[in-house]
């Protein structure tokens, strides 16, 4: 059994662009508990008021699976452990499990702590001995252990021996600078095992893109706790990514770390934490990314229809992901048939319609359309060709005025359209011309289609396709929209950015309405 130790809320929060409010931290904690993470490191209570509040508030969550851990350092040089404020704050946090880090590398002992190697050993021993009288579990993070070992193996091992003799429940070997190679991790742990007989953990950083690999190697060498973060968030290049480590342990090594039911939540948890952190999910992230099981080439698509394992190393459903077929100018008959089947359309017996879809698709992509990120527009396109599309409104015209009022730029859109036999003429303001157009369109339609109130635009991207033509360049607009359940993309292309935006906006709304009619 390997125990999972999540440090997203502490180490992960040190990543550039990551900032969790107190409420965010509590939300993420509940999500990690539902996943089944064994230990959640909540923060460093001696470093800031927010983390102190977290340890007070988290007690009311009544977690079912996770143990909350407070984090801190060994005592300061030449100070009694019982008088050290950092250690006192760990005890006041009220957690039964505490993790402290200490120095393994002579470079840090002398140049950072500004103390002697002997005093550093006492700091480790005194701190653990003191904490063991106050809490149930003490984990010792041997910071910079691998670098320290490569620099002075005898001293690095001595620091671990001090932690072991002082009663640490677990000693965690840390590749803090993230530059160690897997073969080094393997060989060094073998040497550690000659002296340290107790439980070992592993904590790696990703500066050499080896964090996950080094974690797996450590587990194969006997580590029984792995530390990491959701999506690999962390300082510099990040920490070991638990979203990759967990399925690797489960499916590749056959090591029990989470129940199968929990694994099926992994993609959801990954995206949830990204949303809370206000970061865009990494599409090509293994296992949980949107592109992890996406297929574009016609040969690949034909093969997975015959046998999914031909181009997928596991079933995407095992980690809560799904297979996606991307349509593009590379698409063949297999791609179109697969997508049509997803849409509930049987085209197997209609060769002419398949050919028409392929021809239309390739012509549109030649004009600048791209449907890989615009599955909503693609679905509408297919329905139009096969006669399953019903227009929800007809545009008579629109006008957009952009002016400067009282020192501020203001956009106003006026729109005329017919919907359900009635003509609507509305106007709305917006932060920009596209926002104003979106507001005016919704204002005209929501009376007839109240369900549109639950959808909103989540992303808006503009791409100039041929910049060498200057202001005559063709523009592609990709819009992402969401409602309470789903997210979909739509696309528009034109030499006029407003027209391109309009096309994408209309598709986003018509796609939503097409789903509601089912």
From TrEMBL:
- SMART domains recorded for this chain? LeuA_dimer
Record carries keyword Repeat? no
**Keywords in alphabetical order:** Amino-acid biosynthesis, Branched-chain amino acid biosynthesis, Isoleucine biosynthesis, Transferase
* Top-level EC class as recorded in UniProt: transferase
Which GO molecular function, any one, fits this protein according to its record?
Answer: 2-isopropylmalate synthase activity
Pathway, per UniProt?
Amino-acid biosynthesis; L-isoleucine biosynthesis; 2-oxobutanoate from pyruvate: step 1/3
Q: Belongs to which family?
A: Belongs to the alpha-IPM synthase/homocitrate synthase family.
**Record's protein name:** Citramalate synthase
Q: Which organism is it from?
A: Candidatus Desantisbacteria bacterium CG1_02_38_46
